[in-house]
TrEMBL record:
Residues 3-60 form the HTH lysR-type domain. GO terms for molecular function: DNA binding; DNA-binding transcription factor activity. Belongs to the LysR transcriptional regulatory family. Keywords: DNA-binding, Transcription, Transcription regulation. Pfam families: HTH_1, LysR_substrate. GO terms for cellular component: cytosol. InterPro entries: HTH-type_LysR_regulators (IPR050950), LysR_HTH_N (IPR000847), LysR_subst-bd (IPR005119), WH-like_DNA-bd_sf (IPR036388), WH_DNA-bd_sf (IPR036390). PROSITE patterns: HTH_LYSR (PS50931). This is LysR family transcriptional regulator.
Length: 301
């Protein structure tokens, strides 16, 4: 099948700007040219991708399905062109991988230090993305591998369990619970808690494991990012529950194990089935695996 790159480019512009005139302005083309490219793309695919509305445009089901894949494909092509343009054909090949942000917080700095020591000239790109995005990155070959969470099988991908990571309590250092060797979930009743609504689904995992215990918890704040929740904790506004790798001792908060029950998540390595990684890719994946398994509180697989 011949790829209509100009049509894909026009589709992305229309979808991301919300209209044909805005897309024309972005691409420095006439609105007629954008309409022509869109019509040609839709004809080649045999489906309608967008519909005009009184407020602009709306993506069809086919358009919604194409959008993330088109973004990854165009981004990969743009990055490849940038590498060739900037460094020439003899430049070292970038190694790109995906990593969940809450895992990257605990391993990325030491990982890249070891990579630099072993491969001083190797350029590395990290996508700190959600589990769903990491799957798409590896499937689209934008990323060589992904460090993510256990999830349903994805087409074309192999998944290897790395470790189980417990959820822990993060509280101000002067808090009454800070010096405890461990805290039971029931003891958090009446405490002001900060919920973190991450795309990784940590809140859902906690709610499922706690069962009736969750009814007594007081979630008085909600943040979208772990860093924001930890900032609220440092200022004494509440306590939060985070995966162990997401918080470090130097973050200015106390980290206390939680039990009764113990709640954890599975960290996995995602690769493409039937493909042998290159030397540098294998080194980075193996080093990431070793760092995760050696991290305090985690249970190696």
């Amino acid at each position: 099948m011949q790829i209509d790159f100009l049509g894909i480019q026009a589709f992305l512009a229309v979808a991301e700007t919300g209209g044909f005139s805005q897309a024309a302005a972005r691409l420095h083309l006439s609105q007629t040219a954008i309409s022509h490219r869109m019509r040609k793309l839709e004809d080649s695919l045999g489906v309608q991708l967008v519909v005009r509305t009184s407020r602009g445009i709306s993506l069809t089901q086919a358009g919604e399905a194409l959008l993330p894949r088109a973004r990854h494909a165009v981004r990969q092509l743009e990055e490849s062109c940038d590498v060739v343009r900037t460094h020439g054909q003899n430049a070292p090949q970038w190694v790109t991988f995906g990593c969940l942000p809450t895992i990257a917080a605990g391993i990325l700095a030491p990982l890249l230090e070891q990579v630099r020591a072993a491969h001083p000239q190797l350029p590395v790109r990290v996508f700190d993305s959600s589990p769903a995005e990491i799957v798409e990155l590896v499937q689209a070959r934008t990323a060589a591998f992904g460090v993510s969470l256990d999830q349903p099988a994805a087409e074309g991908l192999a998944m290897r369990l790395v470790a189980r990571e417990p959820f822990v309590l993060a509280c101000p250092r002067g808090h009454a619970l800070a010096a405890r060797p461990a805290v039971g979930w029931a003891e958090l009743r009446g405490q002001p808690l900060v919920r973190i609504s991450l795309p990784s689904g940590n809140s859902a995992t906690i709610d499922e494991k706690l069962g009736p215990l969750r009814e007594g918890l007081q979630w008085i704040y909600e943040a979208q990012r772990t860093a924001v929740a930890l900032k609220l904790v440092r200022h004494g506004l509440g306590l939060t529950i985070v995966p162990r790798l997401a918080v470090r001792d130097e973050d200015g908060v106390a980290v206390v194990p939680l039990h009764e029950p113990e709640v954890s998540r599975a960290i996995v390595l995602l690769t493409r089935q039937g493909e042998a990684p290159g030397e540098a890719e294998r080194f980075i994946a193996d080093t990431a695996t070793q760092l995760i398994r050696a991290a305090p509180g985690l249970t190696p697989a």
